[in-house]
Amino acid sequence: MNGGVSGWYRxxxxxxxxxxxxxxxxxxxxxxxLLLLGARGLxxxxxxxxxxxxxxxxxxxxxxxxxxxxxxxxxxxQLQFSAAGAPLSGERIERQLLKLGNRDVTGNDFxxxxxxxxxxxxxxxxxxxxxxxxxxxFYGFPSGILxxxxxxxxxxxxxxxxxxxxxxxxxxxxxxxQLREEIERIERSIIADINFGMxxxxxxxxxxxxxxxxxxxxxxxxxxxxxxxxxxYAEIRLRLLELNRQIQRDSAIFRVxxxxxxxxxxxxxxxxxxxxxxxxxxAMGTYLARLFEFLTDDPRESNIEGGLLPAIYGxxxxxxxxxxxxxxxxxxxxxxxxxxxxxxxxxxxxxxSVNNLAGVPSIVYGMFGLxxxxxLAGGEIxxxxxxxxLPAPTFGTPGLLWASLTLALLTLPVVIVATEEGLANxxxxxxxxxxxxxxxxxxxxxxxxxxxxxxxMLTGLILAVARAAGEVAPLMLVGVVxxxxxxxxxxxxxxxxxxxxxxxxxxxxxxxxxxxxxxxAAMPQAFAAAFLLVAVVTALNLSAVxxxxxxxERYKALETGSWS
Length: 564
What we know:
It is a single chain. The chain is of the alpha+beta class. Helix content is 59%, strand content 13%. The chain has 3 domains: 51-122, SH3 type barrels (Roll); 140-268; 309-559, Orthogonal Bundle (MetI-like fold), CATH 1.10.3720. It has helices at residues 2-10, 13-41, 103-106, 159-211, 216-247, 280-296, 309-340, 345-357, 362-385, 400-424, 428-436, 441-470, 475-478, 505-515, 519-559, and strands spanning 51-55, 62-75, 92-99, 110-113, 118-122, 128-132, 138-147, 150-153, 250-255, 261-265, 269-273, 299-300, 305-306.
């Protein structure tokens, strides 16, 4: 028996099972994390039922309207009640977090309640959920519509009249949405072009003043162009004033918990739906619409609502620019160390230094980027090429270029090590055969070695991108901000604005989780953004694993002589 156990142990079988168990545990943790983030984040966009009930925890009871956001089990001794029927001290009871909405009316967005103290609970089909541009969600019953302060729909909430009121509200919401889209198009396109033109004229005028000399004709030309832009702005301003007057025309009246009526401008409503009256298909339509808004719209309400398009866009632009910067540097350094550097203590020291750089805390890279790239290099660039803009900095301030360069330095060791490993795994017989056929060392490197090492280069790049996509600490110092709706890539010359600050998914999650003024409302949005970020990083890492596996199979084919 002992001999059998010791033989089984010496055979290595336990280690195989141990490794398999470790891999399974890692996969379970990764997919468990994705499942948790997906359930807490993506589930946030599903329209939840909204209850109406009398809450007996206070005397007299109050009417509450809201949706259940969370629940937990607590000791009843921690709670205080002012009404009979409260649970005894020492009991473990469940309490629920009720999202009340209507923050501008009640002052509270959330409240903890005891389900056992809810009386006459119902889910009225005509109860409406409003998503607003400010103040969060609103819950109530529509009771009228006003146009320029005059009623245009009967203040009734019964039968066919209530359905007609709901249809009229939806029609006016669509009108307000179209007007807002037109206003945003004018502000982001026409007015942005005018402002950009005015700024170019100002800088041109400043440049002429610094240069001195006779520039009277050029200054007069600048004045004529400025007058043209001023006339265009005056015309488009009138158009904007008219659109804003039209969009403020309509308002709706809603009856809230307790019976009070509140008037809301229709222009402030993003979406209105009746969650308790929805079937599965209608709920799925609303879910997809909210999810699409999350991926394609701008943030609102201190980032706790709306979308994260600027964060997705900024992350993608930074990663692409970082890839363009880090790939040639990493590949050239790896080629030199592997193919050209003499074998000695200096080369070994360089390799050790590269490996140590991979373990330096990322915040150190952020401090280096702030001191060297921004203050030193950026300041010199401003003095040499943007003196007309001073004292306002152009490149001497955090921006996309410096963030990309900082992360390129941060991920450079990953690319160097992965590329060197790929070069070392290429059989020496291939190099010798190429040299024997008369090729030079450079031709052998360019036509034989590097093509075979390409999968390792791509693996290193993907690992670098995966790490860069999740970094936050250095970016807080070199370019990322809480809110930057303007995208770094647009139609204005030079099209890619490297000096511009931007938003990033990692910092977006950090800001929601740690700095949001309304934590309960921000957490679902933070979970959804974290799910998107982790899913992207996981996909990139899995791609690296697949590439490495294919690379090993190709090398295995070379070793067995099956290369063709």
